[in-house]
Amino acid sequence: MRYFLFITGVLFYLISTITVSQTLTGCTPGSGTTDTIAPPPPPPPPPPPPVVPDTITLVRKLEEFYISGNPYQESRTRSFSFYYDNQKRVTAIGLRNHISFQTDTMTTRMFYSGNEKFPYMIIAPSTSSVNTGPPLYDTCWFFMGTNGRLLKDSATDWSYNSTSGQLEHVYPVVRNYSYNGNQTFIEWRGRYHSNVTGFETLRLDTILASADTVLTRANSVFYTSQAWMGSPNTVTQPTVGSFYVNPLAKLNISGTIYSLIYTPTVYEILGNRFHVAAHNSNTLAYYLDFFNSKIPARYYMSSYQGGFLLAAGGIQTDITVTPWTVRTSYPAELFVTMSFGYPGDKFRYKYSY
Q1: DSSP secondary-structure letter at 134?
Q2: How far is CA 247 from CA 58, 122, 230, 317, 349, in A?
Q3: Which phi and psi (to 5°) does residue 115 adopt?
């Protein structure tokens, strides 16, 4: 009996040992008898930040100052105050001539049809009036193509009759626009001087611009009754660009190399009518640019008569920009100088937003 119990105990011991051994062996890492739990996948990357569209900061006021070099003196000459509707379209511009003995305050008004971007009519003051008292106004009608480009505009205009010594309304000054790719052709027709008979060509513009609306070259021909000598042409070419935004080119009334906010502008190129082709004296560095999307750092105006260069050479205009601290791509002020001007003379333009 003892022997039987002994044998039974030994067998129980051996069976228990084998079972425990198998159980421990089955739990050994790497034995391949148990599945491995994979770590959780990493979280997805955060979405990219939203792209903030480049908003347009509208100019509220532009002030013009003339700086005399000898003796040094700065005088405010003109100021322009801009008013907008809820679609950011210009509805009125207040013009003030601070040094004129003729007139002081004037207002240009724009009129729109529905939600159209460009006005169908602008009533603008004549800034070359020789009469004192209230300003004289001209009305200009605009005709657009289906692609939103100008086809024609027509305005009544005031002109000085050198025979009678009086201002008179003359035939409408009509501008016809045509396009070929990035070229624009503008023909000016009218009777600019009331003592000239007939309807004549006043000026022809051929404008070449880059895709981002920066002037590449403009050839403007001024015809006999308009120029002080013959029929000269003026070639305007920016030679040094900049990255500064031109606030006037952001307006819905922009896109021309002359201004639409006052009359007359038949001599004007980038706000300047004191260039050699139209002005037989020293230049003045006026600059009012409704065309270039970026302010040029330098541009040239070369005037020719019969293939010969007028004056001693091309007129060099240099523009120095002081950036606006709020948006450094916008100007706070400009300093504009022009060769063949009086030594040290310049213009300063101050922007308010």
Answers
A1: S
A2: 7, 20, 36, 19, 12
A3: -100, 15
Q: Count the neighbouring beta carbons within 10 Å of the beta carbon of residue 26.
A: 10
Q: How far apart are alpha carbons 341 and 319 in whole angstroms?
A: 15
Q: What is the pLDDT of residues 236-277, one digit of tens each?
A: 998 888 999 999 999 999 999 999 999 889 889 999 998 888
Residue 167 is encoded by which pair of tokens?
Answer: 């201002």
CA 332 to the chain's CA centroid: 15
- 80 by DSSP, 3-state: which? strand
**Helices (DSSP H) in 152-215: which residue ranges?**
none
Amino acid at residue number 227:
A
Instruction: Decide: helix, strand or coil at residue 25.
Output: helix
Cα end-to-end distance, the chain, whole Å: 115
Q: What residues contact residue 179 under an 8 Å CB cut-off, 6+ apart?
A: 149, 185
CA dist list (Å): 341 to 227, 315, 344: 19, 9, 8
Q: Based on DSSP, count helices (H) and strands (E) in the chain, helices before strands.
A: 1, 17
What letter represents residue 246's amino acid?
Answer: N
Reported as a single tens digit per residue, the pLDDT across 111-153 is: 999 999 999 999 999 886 655 667 888 999 999 998 889 999 9
